[in-house]
UniProtKB/TrEMBL annotation:
The keyword Ubl conjugation does not apply. Its EC number is 3.6.4.13. This is ATP-dependent RNA helicase. GO terms for molecular function: ATP binding; hydrolase activity; RNA binding; RNA helicase activity. Residues 64-245 form the Helicase ATP-binding domain. Residues 273-457 form the Helicase C-terminal domain. PROSITE patterns: HELICASE_ATP_BIND_1, HELICASE_CTER. Keywords: ATP-binding, Helicase, Hydrolase, Nucleotide-binding, RNA-binding. RNA helicase. Residues 1-23 are annotated as: Disordered. The Q motif is unique to and characteristic of the DEAD box family of RNA helicases and controls ATP binding and hydrolysis. Gene3D superfamilies: P-loop containing nucleotide triphosphate hydrolases.
Length: 508
């Protein structure tokens, strides 16, 4: 997919991360112009993108990465710190100083772990090249037309941003493989995520398909939020001996739960969350012995609902639910039983997110968005305690994507495909539930997501419409669940179309 700057949104909406934590004591981009940077690249970043001062990661790396130094570097930098510009500017400077635009060879190859990140990088490259429009930026990512990508690459591609699997597919074509014959720069972005997703064999194959550095010298860069032993292995694969290591993360600034792998699973709709949850829990339980998990739900009614559904699924460890509505003695009994268990699943609300210690929790599921970032962090903190291993799985629907994109924009999620294998089974279980319980869940869902209207970008009518769709498709309700007038008033939904409002004394 070729990128055209005219197709992109305004720069102020595309690169918010580059304006965060702006420091005015770092060097100015204009300082590079005289000897290091093409004037049109300088104008693009200062006049068009309106970035005057370098972010710390840029100030720490650009002098090493830009010509004439062009050192191979392993850079430790968190997401959202301006690292994309830190590797793009040196690579683009090399390209414009050595290569005619739209020739038959690729100058810069960027390998990204996800499609979304690849597209974001390609957009940044296109913006930086907007005053040099003859240079072409292309992407090669899964889920798109492979033949169209092939044609675009062969018709002249100067910058290629790719995901590993699709890149290897293209490299099997001799003509595309030859396009890397004069590669100037190779970048692996989010190298730790690439490895966490199991791409090391694919990365080896990519390097094998590139010309040797002896035959065609190139600069290589690795950017990673962490530098664990497995990242050092890939550094040995792509970087030249004597490469420079640069860390832009202050000592002691690493996140408390950085050692906990965090997966992000997205399903299409709120109604499909249940099937995605059951499939994920079953998948994790079958992979691990002594499986001890906490499944967090947004509300007590949803926690009870999820617990009921999971208890009907064969082959899972013992299921229990813990909610604030329970009597204290029952809560204590359930807590103690789960605490001493070696293999069990607890479905709970934020009641257990803070101040409760459950040893040996291997996995934390968060189903639906939490109330805020702090809630997410505290929930995740139930696993991986005392530097033990742990996993976090965050399952949301597409409408909830705003939360990880904003509140958790510096969290290194490992994207994971959703499985809906349990869809038909759980739908039948939900359909057979008592109608009064469905009404409780519906009211609870409506009240909770009303708190997130701004993030969801909904008005009140859209909230009600989505709640009704969830009741029909997710709960199997035959009609819109009734909701008492007083609750409608308390929710501020009086007069909102789509509600089935009933008198307060209506049985529910």
């Amino acid at each position: 997919m070729a990128m055209d700057v005219d197709d992109l949104p305004p720069a102020t909406n595309s690169t918010p991360s580059l304006t965060e934590d702006l420091r005015h004591d770092t060097p100015r981009f204009a300082d590079l112009s005289a000897h290091f940077l093409h004037p049109l690249l300088t104008q693009a970043i200062t006049d068009d993108l309106r970035f005057q001062h370098m972010m710390p990661v840029q100030a720490a790396t650009l002098w090493e990465l830009l010509p004439p130094n062009r050192r191979d570097c392993l850079v430790q930098a968190k997401t959202g710190t301006g690292k994309t510009v830190a590797f793009l500017l040196p690579a683009l400077q090399t390209m414009v100083s050595q290569k005619s635009p739209a020739s038959s060879t690729v100058s810069l190859l960027v390998v990204s772990p996800t499609r979304e990140l690849a597209l974001q990088i390609a957009q940044e490259a296109t913006r930086l090249l907007q005053r040099l429009p003859n240079y072409r930026v292309c992407t090669a990512i899964g889920g798109t037309n492979r033949d169209k990508e092939k044609i675009q690459i062969l018709n002249g591609c100067d910058v290629l941003v790719a995901t590993p699997g699709r890149l290897v597919d293209h490299m099997s074509n001799e003509h595309i493989s030859n396009a890397f014959g004069q590669l100037d720069t190779l970048v692996l972005d989010e190298a730790d995520t690439l490895l966490d997703m199991g791409f090391m064999p694919t990365l080896r194959e990519i390097v094998r398909n590139l010309p040797s550095k002896e035959r065609a010298p190139r600069q290589s860069m690795l950017f990673s939020a962490t530098v664990m032993p497995h990242v050092s292995q890939v550094a040995g694969l792509v970087l030249s001996p004597g490469y420079k290591s640069i860390s832009t993360i202050p000592t002691g600034a690493t996140n408390t739960h950085e050692h906990v792998a965090q997966m992000l699973i997205k399903v299409p709709t709120f109604a499909s969350v249940l099937a995605g949850m059951v499939s994920s829990v079953v998948d994790e339980a079958t992979k691990h012995e002594n499986y001890k998990a906490i499944v967090f739900a947004p509300t007590a009614a949803l926690a009870g609902f999820y617990g009921h559904i999971l208890s009907m699924v064969p082959g899972l460890p013992q299921i229990s639910s813990l909610q604030s509505r329970m009597r204290q003695n029952k809560r204590t009994r359930i807590s103690n039983k789960f605490r001493i268990a070696s293999s069990a699943i607890l479905v709970a609300t934020d009641l257990v997110a803070r101040g409760m210690d459950f040893p040996g929790v291997t996995t934390v599921f968060q189903i639906g968005i939490p109330l805020d970032k702090q809630s997410y962090v505290h929930r995740l903190g139930r696993t991986g305690r005392a530097n033990a291993e742990g996993r976090g799985i965050f399952l949301i629907c597409e409408a909830e994507s705003f939360f990880p994109n904003s509140a958790l924009n510096q969290t290194r999620f490992i994207p994971h495909e959703a499985s809906m294998a349990s869809g038909e089974e759980v739908h039948h279980i939900a359909e057979r539930m008592d109608e009064k319980e469905k009404i409780r869940i519906y009211k609870s869902w409506l009240a909770y997501y009303r708190l997130h209207l701004r993030g969801l970008g909904w008005g009140k009518e859209e909230l009600v419409s989505e709640a009704n769709r969830y009741a029909a498709d997710g709960l199997g309700s035959r009609e819109t669940p009734p909701i008492p007038q007083s609750i409608v008033q308390n929710l501020g939904l009086t007069g909102t179309k789509g509600l089935n409002v009933v008198p307060d004394k209506y049985p529910s």
